[in-house]
Amino acid sequence: MTDRAHIFTAMQALLDRDSSREGLCAVLVVRMRGMREAQLRFGYGFGNEVMLAARERIVEIVRHIDKVFVAADDTFVLLLPAIRNRTHALLAATRLVGGFDEPLMCGDRPWHGRVVVGAAMHPEHGAAAELLCRRAEIAHDEALRIGEPFAMYQPDNTQVEILYGELREDIEANRLQVYFQPLLDLRKQTITRVESLARWNTQTHGEVAPVDFIPFAERSDLIVPLTRWSLNASLRHVATLHRAGAPIDIAINLSARVFVEQGFAEQMLGALDIWGVPAESVIVEVTETALLTDLDMSVRVLRRLRDRGMRVAIDDFGTGYASFAYLRHFPATELKIDRTFVDAMIDDPRTEQLVRAMVEVAHRLGLEAVAEGVENQETLDRLIEMNCDMVQGFHVGRPSPADEFVARQLADASFV
Length: 416
Hints:
45% of the residues lie in helices and 24% in strands. It is an alpha/beta fold. The chain folds into 2 domains: 4-159, Alpha-Beta Plaits (2-Layer Sandwich), CATH 3.30.70.270; 169-411, Alpha-Beta Barrel (TIM Barrel).
């Protein structure tokens, strides 16, 4: 790992030296997309060759007074002194992005990669090198979010500043937590399933809500390692219950982005074998939007999992664009009725009829109906009357750390 402290020291000396001169300084974070995959496929030596070739290309693109630092296995930090304005910094970013239109030659193998660039300005966005690098990282992450090749840092006090490197390192170091939320089987009147949820507590911001970091992971290349972590961390806890004779089913959310990962179905099935959890105990949940992202790819992967015994739930049903044509081809075993309908049905008779219709549609298609967002007894009673199969929500049980949930279940003699 490159010594970032050394880079910050060198950059700070340059910033302090140039602060008395005319013009601004720009700090650029340049990240090579797909480097992790290249290293895993061709080896770390190939990754080193790519980085050496990339550095040579960057040096050719920028001015002789600009400084280029290698900050990680896939990241460069550039310091551009004597920049007239933001536009010139973004022009430099444009040149860097365009400079990788042609593949890098590493030995006799070309590498078709691309870069994403984040920029911050000195002194407008900070005087310290470390802060400027962090804010250039945030700009990089914003570029990923909006699907652009580069972006300039824009202060926004309402948005959590998620750092790509911090999330990646915390996933690799297993610093995230698994939470389990219970689901109640209305026929058996027992908890027979849990949904696995990821929680992230950072040194920078404390607890970051899933609504912030999971969409960010989906927009970047971190959703695949996040999914792998979630799968293995969840199965580890479920395996403890199975070994103790207290089996329980586990629902795991999948992003449509993971379906394009080569061999993903085999990786998931391999994880089940490693932890000794039967495929029949696993439900994968996919939102309706995944149906539109790449229906053919989604169907192929999910059918592979279904063939091995896993179940498939369409999550947030009713909020997306699913139609009977999609449901006809999609290998689902259950529908999860979105909480926006369940929560509103007590006060809105029309919504109640919609929920009733969704339950009936699920049953007519041979699927289980699962209601999300059950917050009170009255809602639960209505769903029982509708013949809904399973429910979840704060009235049934709030999410809790997986290890605490497992300990409670093992201590409950009636469960075993």
